[in-house]
Write a structure and sequence with these properties.
Elements: E1 5-8, E2 24-25, E3 32-33, H1 46-51, E4 60-65, E5 68-74, E6 89-90, E7 101-104, E8 117-120, E9 129-134, E10 139-144, E11 151-157, E12 187-193
Antiparallel strand pairs: 1-4, 2-3, 4-5, 6-7, 7-10, 8-11, 9-10, 11-12
Length: 194
């Protein structure tokens, strides 16, 4: 499939080697994830130094399949902040109900990270249920398998949870080569059911 895809600049010229040469298909074979060539995204790497960045703020680009435009967009500013768990808004739930808890995030997260968030009981065990992302991956909802019991719970976000730009909780995608990122730390937010 990759040979059939191209990324065009505003002059409709193909951008040289924009994608990682690997096709990432969903288990059901219906969704293909393509990734920008990582050596052209992160500063200080040989591919970026020799070929330049794939995208820059203000660029207008078009993704094509077999020469037909399938997506156009304007490139925005670089996102260097990442998810900030302390700014998330967590809804209350009713005792003895299966009411979903909704967590409004401070921005979108990677759609594959839905299970990087979980609800834990006071003893640390994960509450069984179903989680999903909605509203452009900015809202995480969790519906328990059994009704909520009164008590203290925690929302746990795995430290490797990422936003679409590759920033993690407490860490940034763009780090200096001589200053590697610290080990990811989980975020824990109290949730009381009263």
């Amino acid at each position: 499939m990759l040979p059939r895809l191209a990324l065009l600049d505003a002059a409709r010229k193909p951008i040289d080697s924009p994608f990682l040469d690997q096709e990432l298909w969903s288990p059901d074979g219906k969704v293909l994830t393509i990734m920008p060539h990582p050596g052209r995204v992160k500063t200080g790497l040989i591919a970026r130094n020799e070929l330049g960045p794939i995208l820059s703020a203000g660029d207008n680009v078009t993704l094509t399949l077999d020469g037909r435009a399938i997506k156009r967009w304007s490139v925005g500013a670089t996102d260097e902040i990442g998810p900030v768990a302390s700014s998330w808004k967590v809804s209350a739930v009713r005792i003895a109900s299966k009411q979903p808890v909704a967590v409004v995030l401070d921005g979108p997260i990677d759609g594959r990270d839905v299970d990087y968030l979980a609800i834990a009981e006071a003893g640390g065990d994960r509450v069984a249920g179903n989680a999903r992302l909605s509203r452009g991956e900015t809202t995480w909802t969790f519906t328990p398998n059994i009704p909520w019991q009164a008590g203290n719970y925690t929302l746990v976000a795995h430290g490797t949870l990422e936003d679409p730009a590759g920033n993690r909780l407490g860490g940034h995608f763009e780090t200096r080569m001589d200053s590697p990122p610290e080990y990811p730390i989980d975020a824990v937010i109290p949730l009381a059911v009263r």
